[in-house]
Amino acid sequence: MSGAVEARIAELGLTLPEVVPPLAAYQPAVQSGVYVYTSGQLPMVAGKLPVTGKVGAEVTPEEAKELAATCALNALAAVKSVAGDLDRIKRVVKVVGFVASAADFTGQPAVINGASELLGEILGEKGVHARSAVGVAVLPLDAPVEVEVQVELAEA
C-alpha cells in the first residue's frame, strides 16, 4: 500500500527501503498507543554501510549529513512496518541523532540536519520535530551516524 507520503518520497527521487533487519535483540520499531518509536537506524543501503568511520576524520560532515538522511528514510520504513501506511503519520514528535565524532568535531547539529531536513521535505509541517544531536565515540559497525524517530499516528 502506498499513499501520498510514498508518492512524495518518489517525487524526491528516493525509494522507501526494506526494513533493516535488527543487529541484536530488538525490533526495528514498536507502537505504543498512537506513538511509534523506532530503534536507532544506521545508514544501511542494500544491507550494508556505504561509509564507516568518525565524522571529522574519515567521514566529511557533508557525507555524514547525507548518511543521516538515509537513516531517516530507514526510520520511515521501520514506522511503516508497524503503522502499515505512512499517511497515518500525524507528526514527527522527536528525532535523536548520534554522530560518531572525531575528538575535535563539534558539528553534530549540522550532520543531523540531514535527517531533519529530509523529514521536512517528505512530510512538510508534519515533519517539524523536537531533536537532540549527540556526539559519541563509536556506533555499531563503525557507522558514522545513527538516528531514531518518534512519530504520532492518526487513528486507523
Output the keywords:
alpha+beta, 156 residues
Structural class: alpha+beta
Distance between the termini: 14 Å
Query: What radius of gyration results from the CA coordinates?
Result: 15 Å
Global outline: globular
Order of helices and strands: HEEHEHEE
What is the percent of helical residues?
25-40%
Strand adjacency order, main sheet: 1-2-5-3-4
Summed up, the helix count is 3
Please outline the major beta sheet.
5 strands, mixed
Segments where pLDDT lies below 50 for 5+ residues?
Answer: none
Fraction in beta strands = 15-25%
Q: Give the integer mean of the pLDDT values.
A: 96
Number of beta strands: 5
Describe the structure.
The chain is built from three helices and five strands. It has 156 residues and is of the alpha+beta class. The longest helix has 23 residues, at 61-83. The two termini are 14 Å apart. The mean pLDDT is 96.
Summed up:
With 156 residues, the protein is α+β, with helices and mostly antiparallel strands.
